[in-house]
Design goal:
With 458 residues, the protein is of the alpha+beta class. The protein is 29% helix and 18% strand. It is flat and about 80 Å long. The two termini are 39 Å apart. InterPro entries: Kinase-like_dom_sf, Pan_app, Prot_kinase_dom, Protein_kinase_ATP_BS, Ser-Thr/Tyr_kinase_cat_dom, Ser/Thr_kinase_AS.
């Protein structure tokens, strides 16, 4: 990972921090944004530190050779250990894979490590010895001090846990209707916030119900008043909503609260001023705001949101109703996926939607260059447009086993590819059940710049 881990670092981005380090920004890290990088959990204190052996590593950049590099392992370790500014060392083989020369050299690093990566126990990997604070605390006094700290910490934690248990029990006994961390709002409060669900407050309507704009606690919100098709009772609905609310990602609309009273079930979301993507995309005056750069950014943002739902979240959620009307835009035209938990609440009772056949037919006839919107033809990158069309057709193939994983889709959109397979005929009717999780072959990709060799459809 070059400098810090981000979503374009490796084919399927997996960001992990080394032992002795922690995320610099825990909130962003949890949400899938790793650009802030990592920091040491405990700073180095002079030379009173130890070294942790990390096997199967790629040697970081910006190393220095000690003594021309021709040193034994013991000499290399001694040299780094006595220099308090040395943060890591490796007795690494710098020879190429086909070379028979012994190019084992002593490499040391000073300052921050750049381009550190785990490549596995294979040819070309080395053992990196990383300096960490406190690994060689041999002083008996220090060991005793640490033991006292551990005992005190355990006692303190036990007291805190007991207090929390008592408070939870007391809250349950005194206020049994408020045993939730998630905010549950009364129907009366929501009715006031939306002027008794006035038609003038309606900002959208879909298969799951109408959406109203409201003002709740001084904050603008979007209130979805669900239709009464849900088979769930109040308790099941609340439990499901609590699970969905724990999904946090920059490309998902945030669920702020809910209400369940009698037959009424309502969800409260953050309000996004630019509304849904279709409101801009299909408006002749507003669609000029969507140049190709913005559209491509929206496409990649939606893909990252789906990757989180499919693979990276604590729940495995298949959207089942993803369309431009369920992609909302914030003030900076960044996309946020909405209605991603409705399939869990309502089940598979929505009408199956026809997929437009135009794109497939034009692909099959070799006329894909006619597909881009005329308003962006003079400014778009045709290679990027064709790449998006190609990936989209792969994602709607009739056989689910032929569809790519979202991790591969994200990587291809971010890095481009010249080796995509030709898509098969799309599935014009969605037939998978709610519980079905798509399993697709990874797209064969390269890390070339964004170019595309057009493949004729079969």
């Amino acid at each position: 990972m070059y400098g810090y881990c981000d979503e374009t670092s490796v084919p399927v981005p997996t960001c992990k921090y080394l032992h002795g380090f922690e995320p610099a920004n825990t909130v962003e890290w949890t949400g899938g944004k790793f650009s802030a990088g990592c920091q040491r959990t405990e700073p180095l204190r002079g030379c009173n530190n130890g070294f942790l052996a990390l096997t199967g590593m790629k040697s970081p950049d910006k190393y220095s050779l000690i003594g021309g590099g021709r040193s034994t392992f013991e000499e290399c370790a001694t040299e780094c250990n006595r220099n308090c500014s040395c943060v890591a060392y490796s007795h690494a083989n710098l020879s190429s894979s086909g070379s028979k020369r012994n190019m084992t050299r002593c490499l040391v690093w000073f300052g921050e490590l750049v381009d550190t990566g785990k490549i596995g126990e294979e040819l070309g990997s080395d053992t990196l010895y990383l300096r960490l604070a406190g690994l060689n605390a041999t002083s008996g006094k220090r060991r005793k001090s640490n033991a006292v700290k551990i005992v005190l910490a355990l006692l303190g934690s036990s007291v805190i846990v007991l207090i929390c248990i008592w408070l939870a029990w007391f809250k349950f006994k005194v206020h049994p209707e408020h045993n939730h961390e998630f905010p549950f709002v009364t129907f009366e409060e929501i009715a006031r916030a939306t002027h008794n669900f006035s038609e003038t407050c309606v900002i959208g309507q879909g298969g799951f119900g109408k959406v109203f704009k409201g003002l709740l606690g001084g904050q603008e919100v979007a209130v979805k008043r669900l239709s009464r098709d849900s088979k769930q009772g109040t308790k099941e609905f609340k439990n499901e909503v609590i699970l969905i609310a724990k999904l946090q990602h920059r490309n998902l609309v945030q669920l702020l609260g809910c209400c369940s009273e009698g037959d009424e079930k309502l969800l409260i979301y953050e309000y996004l001023a630019n509304k849904s993507l279709d409101a801009t995309l299909f408006d002749d005056s507003r669609k000029m705001l969507l140049d190709w750069e913005t559209r491509f950014s929206i496409i990649k943002g939606v893909a990252r949101g789906l990757l989180y739902l499919h693979q990276d979240s604590r729940l495995t959620i298949i959207h089942r109703d993803l369309k431009v009307g369920n992609v909302l835009l914030d003030a900076e035209m960044k996309p946020k996926i909405a209605d991603f938990g409705m399939a869990r609440i309502f089940g598979d009772n929505q009408q199956n939607a026809n997929t437009q056949r135009v794109s497939w037919n034009m692909w099959k006839e070799g006329e894909t260059e006619k597909l881009p919107d005329s308003s962006i033809m003079n400014t778009c990158s045709l290679d990027e447009v064709l790449l998006c069309i190609h990936v989209a057709l792969l994602c709607v193939q009739d056989n689910p086993d032929d569809r790519p994983l979202m991790s591969s889709v994200v990587f291809v959109l971010e890095n481009g590819s010249t080796t995509l397979p030709a898509p098969d005929r799309p599935a014009y009717f969605v037939r998978r059940s709610v519980e079905a999780v798509p399993i697709g072959d990874e797209i064969q990709t390269s890390v070339n710049s964004v170019t595309l060799t057009e493949i004729e459809g079969r």
